[in-house]
## 1
Amino acid sequence: MHANLHMNAICRSGGRSAVGASAYRSGSAVSSRSVVACAAYRSAEKIKDERAETTHDFTQKKNVLHSEIITPKGAPDWMSEREELWNAVEAGEKRKDAQLAKEIVLTLPRNLDHQQHRDVVRDFIQHNLTSRGLVADYAIHSPKASDGEQNPHAHILFTLRPVEGDGFGKKLTGYHGLDGRETLQEMRFSYEAILNQASTQADSEIRFDLRNLKDRGIDRAPQPKIGPKVAALEKRGYRTEWGKEVQRVKHQNHARAAQASHQRFNQLAYQAGRAVDDVRDDIAHKYYEVMYGPEHAYGEDETQNQRGHDGFQR
């Protein structure tokens, strides 16, 4: 059962307004480039973007099962309003290359139902984001996967500044903050624990291990995601460089798996052959011992070793 956690930074780039780079990387069909647009797209809502002086309408977007804003204790009521929240975040950052927010994408396992997915996401947010004073805006999507089943996942867009009074405080970014590897690892282990607890409560025997492949002792390269845009191009017959890279890694992993399977088969065959030889030798020795005595079964030297110095069988 698959589950995972990824984090993306949402930044202004090249003097443009807000979040276009992040929306593009995540496969979003967002034409406007603002954190407000990103929030509207994730939640499938219609939101006015004050900085860009436009309105983003994604109310026709499908497969959005639920969206919700979770604030830390003591946060003002206006932070629970999506339009007010993200317009305030956009207006509060002045740099052309400002990092505006971060997004965590949680792959949700199929052994849990929709209500359990919501509980898992809320628990994760409370343990890792609102506990730091941050505001989190999440949406659960469930499009079709490549195997024809549903692909439930959650997008969690969260502020970088904790709530202070009626506004926001100092950013928690930096190597020892939200940008650090340790923080990401901490969040990943937290998600693993929450998932395993939810799976136990659901009377499921499935357990999750979110460590990387190397730490789990798996000799396999990480499989890159092809993404919806590249998948659409490939489906129409276009050969893309990223599609080629995805296939290359896929074939490489299949070859590694085949080689490992062949090595395991050879090892098992050798061990089975040794076991058969040992059993056959034991049967032959017992037969000769019963029919002709120990001397014929084991030889004179071995028989003497089995006897004590007084000449009696031990």
## 2
Amino acid sequence: MEILPEVVRSQRRGPTGATRRTGPVSPARTERLARRAAANAAPAVSADQTALLLLEAMVFAARADGHIDDKERANIHNAVESLFPGRDMAQVLDTLLNKPLDPASLASRIANHDEARDLYRLSAMIIDVDHFMERSYLDGLAAALKIAPEEKAALDSEVEETKRTAIEPS
């Protein structure tokens, strides 16, 4: 799943090398990050297992403050359509929406530190951290993924920079 840093770095500058600001990250951008991470998962893990893990991480992050807002719902919907094309995922989503938030469960299914960093980035990308419960959830996720505080701060900075300077591909 170690494709997100490359994607993050490549999206910071436009074709001329200048940083471009385009506003908040679109649901399509979040969905593309999830799809790319699922496509590059370790071969020992099936694509469906990776896609389900990514979906669960997105739903958990979105639920961290006690509700899922319209932007988060759109991001999840777009990810479901991309990760599970043509499949009815209503029952899976219903299960995830009622499952207790458990960062340790997510962390237990991560194969290596690069995947842990990618899962953290995706979780941070799906939400706007504007509530203490979202911050607390991300802190717990980072701890479960064994991401050191300094590294977490760097990942948070990357995510915020990506959100500010995301460039939609032409």
## 3
Amino acid sequence: MKYLLLSAVFSLNVEYADLTTCQTALEQVSKHDEKAICIPAGKEKSELMFEKFLSIIQKLDNQKTQ
């Protein structure tokens, strides 16, 4: 899962590949911005669209079997 490093002081919104990398960057940023945080980035738009597509396929498949 990807993570975002957010800092209001530096206007940061940086995406990292994993939590460990984000926390490493956070250690440096938090020296100047105590409120900086790492949060899960969530799913990308393409992932969400693919999940919706699969859901539609499954619903259609269920209708065929009924």
